[in-house]
Design goal:
By secondary structure, the chain is an alpha/beta fold. The chain is built from twelve helices and 17 strands. It has two domains: 2-151 and 292-343, Medium-chain alcohol dehydrogenases, catalytic domain (Quinone Oxidoreductase, Chain A, domain 1), CATH 3.90.180.10; 155-288, Rossmann fold, CATH 3.40.50.720. The chain is 26% helix and 26% strand. The strands form five sheets. It has a six-stranded parallel beta sheet, with helices on both faces. It has a five-stranded antiparallel beta sheet with strand order 8-3-4-5-9. Strands 1-2 form a two-stranded antiparallel sheet. Strand 10, helix 6 (178-188) and strand 11 (194-198) form a beta-alpha-beta unit.
Length: 346
């Protein structure tokens, strides 16, 4: 089969690999029907994910059809359409039982697909712990509607959940990239008093205005003063930082009111500095880390009910044979791209 593979630093290639097989009784083999490219894939390419292993198939955003299951897999069966979770988790260790599935103690726990084990920018993928890693797609939900459930939409849902948003809050979201828009869609479900999106790209600010007309938008240069003015409390009650740029971490805590919650969703290329002397007395609560992607069934239900729709994020379509071009367009933000959909088979 064809699989897009991490060869070495700055080099991915579409190569021929053997079809995956059942290696454990809890495995499933999924025929990939639609995949996408995540910014995290670019982090692997550029060397900022040192745990990523050369030789692995890239990709952790995908949906597909179950082809085979191990003898201990009963929740899904061959023929089921499924989303694939970005995280591998056993469901039984201390962290999994607490819902902290990103910290699963299994050797392949956490983000493994497309990082430490073969992922889904391929024709087929093996999914360990399939009863945790796969979620059945309702018949009325399309592949495109479900494509982001296992990763960036799960991330946005998790971020909104841990931010403890109330109806009286002014919520600031920094970044209107794909994960930022997914976060916005989930924050919207919390019905806060105001939502502000800070984004440097004029195109992406326009996207937010078009699809979420009640949301306020601003540029990074005006973010602090705009947020203070709109909140009336010296800053946002909740800040969700989803951009991960050089200056957005500082922008997040500077835009927050005293005693606010600042949730860091972004993955940074470089370490960030927390200047505690400068913020002493502001009494901020920071929440950080990788997504605990255990809400996928609930997200699929919300999609089925018409309460979440991320299909407008898909601006470009490619076949797997053209994945090099898909990466070129996505990485360089060409032609108004937000997200790409990749179809392994014609």
């Amino acid at each position: 089969m064809k699989a897009y593979t991490y060869i070495e630093h700055e080099r991915f290639e579409l190569v021929e690999k053997r079809m995956p097989s059942i290696q454990d009784s809890k495995d499933a083999i999924v025929r990939v029907t639609l995949a996408s490219i995540c910014t995290s894939d670019l982090h692997i390419k550029h060397g900022s994910v040192p745990r990523a292993l050369p030789g692995i198939t890239i990709g952790h955003e995908m949906v597909g059809v179950v082809e085979k299951v191990g003898e201990d897999v009963h929740i899904v069966k061959p023929g089921d359409r499924v989303t694939v979770n970005v995280e591998t988790y056993c469901g039984e260790c201390f962290f999994c039982r607490k819902g902290y599935v990103n910290n699963c103690t299994d050797p392949d726990g956490g983000w493994s697909l497309g990082c430490r084990i073969d992922g889904g920018q391929a024709e087929y993928v093996r999914v360990p712990y399939a009863e945790q890693g796969l979620n059945k797609i309702p018949d009325s939900v399309t592949d495109e509607q479900a494509l982001f459930v296992g990763d960036i939409l799960a991330t946005g849902f998790w971020a909104a959940r841990i931010s403890e948003i109330s109806p009286d809050d002014t919520v600031l979201i920094i970044g209107a990239g794909p994960t930022g828009v997914c976060t916005l869609a989930c924050v919207f479900l919390k019905n806060p008093k105001k939502i502000i999106v800070c984004e440097k790209s004029e195109e992406r600010r326009a996207f937010v205005k078009t699809h979420y007309p009640s949301v306020l938008v601003c540029t990074p240069e005006e973010c602090i003063s705009f947020t203070q003015e709109q909140s009336g409390r010296g800053g946002a009650d909740r800040v969700l930082e989803v951009a991960g740029a050089d200056d957005t971490f500082s922008l997040a805590y500077e835009s927050a009111r005293p005693n606010a919650i600042v949730t860091i969703v972004a993955l940074y290329d470089k370490p960030q500095i927390l200047p505690l002397p400068d913020m002493y007395g502001k009494n901020l609560t920071f929440k950080t880390g990788g997504v605990d992607g255990c809400d996928c069934d609930e997200i699929l239900t919300l999609i089925d009910q018409g309460l979440i729709d991320t299909t407008p994020l898909i601006t470009h379509h490619f076949s797997l044979s053209d994945i090099d071009e898909a990466y070129r367009v996505f990485e360089n933000k060409l032609d108004g791209v937000i997200k790409v959909a990749i179809k392994p088979a014609e």
